[in-house]
Design brief:
154 residues; 5 helices; 4 strands; rod-shaped
Length: 154
């Protein structure tokens, strides 16, 4: 082997080490792309693979929407005691289901403004009295976001 060939071979072996390539990596071949490492197909940590908790379990409004809680029920009870002449509307013929549209025959009435002001404000949502249930609806779609069953009962 000539001296020139030996120098080129040594340079080819040392060049990847000087460039920061890992030991044992194949030298680049002319006309071919270097091999790429495959991206992992799963999440690296078990926590990243777990589904997000629904809003009811996290204690507040999240991507799943706002949540009514027992403190809201206490506010309604206090208002009902202060306004004994108010009566709830007729109960619905079908049960209300969170995440589904309010049934057409559910009826109900808007919540009195004095009572609605005592409850938490959620932009894009409105309160409605349906039977003895306090219902929180998405304003545009009429989808039931939350229900406090029996909150308006005396």
């Amino acid at each position: 082997m000539s001296g020139r060939r030996r120098a080129l071979l040594a340079l080819a072996l040392l060049l990847p080490a000087l460039a920061g390539a890992p030991a044992g990596a194949e030298p680049a071949r002319p006309g071919r792309q270097p091999a790429r490492a495959k991206a992992p197909t799963h999440a690296a940590t078990p926590a990243a693979r777990r589904p997000a908790k629904p809003a009811a379990q996290t204690g507040g409004g999240t991507a799943a929407g706002p949540v009514l809680n027992p403190v809201d029920r206490q506010e309604v009870r206090a208002w009902l005691e202060a306004n004994p002449d108010w009566t709830p509307p007729e109960p619905p013929s079908r049960p209300l289901v969170r995440g589904r549209a309010l049934p057409q025959d559910a009826g109900g009435a808007p919540l009195p403004p004095e009572l609605a002001m005592r409850l938490p404000y959620f932009p894009g949502y409105r309160y409605r009295a349906v039977g003895t249930d306090l219902v929180l609806l998405a304003a545009g779609s009429e989808v039931v976001a939350g229900v406090l069953p029996g909150a308006l009962a005396r």
